Every structure is written in structure tokens, then in C-alpha cells.
């Protein structure tokens, strides 16, 4: 066990247990390539089946409809379900397990994508819902677009956390998402679709003029959030209370390799 204080970079990429049982906790960690391996072939199969039963212009329009449906799902699920903390101890626990842990440790590479045990039932439910749409091949085309949007989200999310994009679009997506993490988590809910933040009035505000680093606007607020996070985890996850606290004198975000 580490005995010294954690640096900021170590805190951001730490991977505390969600469950006390190591066997159960193993299912909360997923390789970032898992969604592509799992859903990539499904998207290909759905596209082939859609083109066999529908003219390609119609299939393309339905595919885009499914993609649009995903972007709205991404935005509103992130804004509502992921950032809603139900009342009570169990409500706080469920919120932390679903999304709070990602905000506490955003650079945990094995917890950036949704575990298949959670995403598969949703994917099946979405397909069954689209099966209710009238028309031959409509369900295949719309589902293919929806799953493509989901894969784009997962890849963009991993990319902005673990790489420094070289394109203007990539840098813009990364900047917007880091503002959500380190400046204002009530803005910037569209990870792969930031345009919905402008439509619904939640676009990230420019960073504080105190520096170019994208982080909490003041050290006191950041320290308070860290202490609240540790207190919450110490109540909800056995053994977390023994973890060393983050040293406030550690290098600030953006000044260490791997801290974004």
C-alpha cells in the first residue's frame, strides 16, 4: 500500500474498488476496446440487413436518425441520470458507482467505458424498441446508427482523457470535456455531441483567466471537493478511508504527463 501522499496525477488515475469483493469488482473494469469488439460486428450486420431490405438512401436517412437519437440520449442521460444524486445513503452509493467515481478518478483507463453487463441490456432494449417502428428494415438501420453513435461516444471519451488530440475538432472536444470535469460539472454534458449544450443552454464557459490549465476555479473549492469525495467513499466503500489523501502542494492539473 502506498504510504506517501498522492500526487494530483496519481489521484486522477487511481482505481479504487467499487465492491468489497475482488471477484465482483473485476466486472467494473473494462478494456477500452471492448465496446468496439462487442458492438462493431453488430453494427456491420445491421447495416447489411438494412441494405438488403431497404433502398440505400432511405437506409442512410434512417441510420442518421438513429445516430441523432443516440446524441440526444447521450446528452440527456449525462445531464439527468448521471448527475442526479438520489436521497439517502444508498442513493449516494448508486450515484458514486455509476458516475461519481469517474469524476473522482477521471483518468482510470479501465473505467472509462460502460461495462458490457450494463450496456448489453440497454442495447437489446433499444433494438426491441426500434422493432416497433413500421417499415421493412427500419429497425436494423436505426439501431445501426444508434450503436455507431454509442461507439463514437466511447472512443471520443477515451481519447480526450488519455491523448492530446492533434486536430482542431479533437482539441475542442477535449477542452469542453475537461471544463466539465475541472471547472463546472453542471455544463458540458455532450461529450461527442457538444452542439446540444449550445441548443439547451449548458455550453461550458471560458476557463478562469488565472491560468491556461483547465481545473477548478479556486484551490479552496478543489480541496473541499476532494475531502468530500474521500469522506463519501470512506462511508460507501470499505477500506477507502485508509487511502492517503491528495497532497494539495502536488503539481496542478495539466503540469504532469498523463494528468488530463
Topology summary:
Elements (H helix, E strand, L loop, with lengths): L7 H6 L8 H4 L8 H20 L2 H26 L7 H16 L11 H15 L7 H25 L5 H15 L12 H5 L19 H18 L24
Helix pairs in contact: 3-7, 4-7, 5-10, 6-7, 7-8
Notable characteristics:
disordered C terminus, 260 residues, mainly alpha
| Continuous helix count | 10
Integer-rounded radius of gyration:
20 Å
Main sheet record: none
- The geometry reads as globular
Approximately how much beta-strand content do the residues carry?
Answer: under 5%
Mean pLDDT: 78
Regions with little confidence, pLDDT below 50 for 5+ residues = 210-222, 236-260
The multimeric state of the shown protein is single chain
N/C terminus separation: 24 Å
Domain count: 1
How many beta-strand runs? 0
Description:
With 260 residues, the protein is mostly helical. The protein has one domain. The chain is globular, with a radius of gyration of 20 Å. The C terminus is likely disordered.
Summarize it.
The protein has 260 residues and is mainly alpha-helical. It contains 10 helices and no strands. The longest helix is centred in the N-terminal third of the chain and has 26 residues, at 56-81.
